[in-house]
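User: Show me a protein chain along with its predicted structure.
Assistant: Here is one chain, sequence first, then structure tokens.
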Amino acid sequence: MKNFGELPAGEIPESLKYNRPFQSTTLSNGIRVVSERNGSQTATVGVYVGAGSRQDTIETSGTAHALRLMLSRGTSARSKADFTSEIEQMGARSNGSTDREWTTQSVTCMKGDVNKAVNILGDIYSNATLDGAEFEQCKQELAAEHESNFKQLQPHTLELAHYNSYRDHMMGQPIRGDRDNVQNLTVDGLNSYRAANYFGDNMVIVGTGGVDYEAFVE
């Protein structure tokens, strides 16, 4: 049998369908807000951007990943230490990830702290300063990441598979960028990438768990 018993391409087999109720609103700036509520005492709020290493070029390889790291390293209202302190005081957890076609930053917290999580994420995406001195420190950390890449066997194997499949297309390039290009990255490059990809229609804010949807959208 092919395609789950000759089902038309793109149709999901009934046995694999799992539809859960959710709510969605598109704001005036184009950002979509989506929520899936359950009875959990915790909630996760995440910002998803429809851009990743695929939107880099050979010359700017690593910019998508570097920008994601820099977002939480200082805004016009918060320092890097402030960000870390606020997350710790909430008993929350912050996570981020860069992929080939999307980038995300999220905060998992108690349900009563959802507004704080939204405020923090809104601040880093809207007001990150991308300080030059802080970026130089970030680049040293990125270089150390590259030195340990080969020890992460599964991700490293997948990177090699992508390269063998796509070669010089950006889908075949490392998500974290070319290790030899790290020191060539610039703050201007980060700002250009942010301007080109971090805009309303290309962003989704998701809340799951103990989320009050109306308050979440507000």
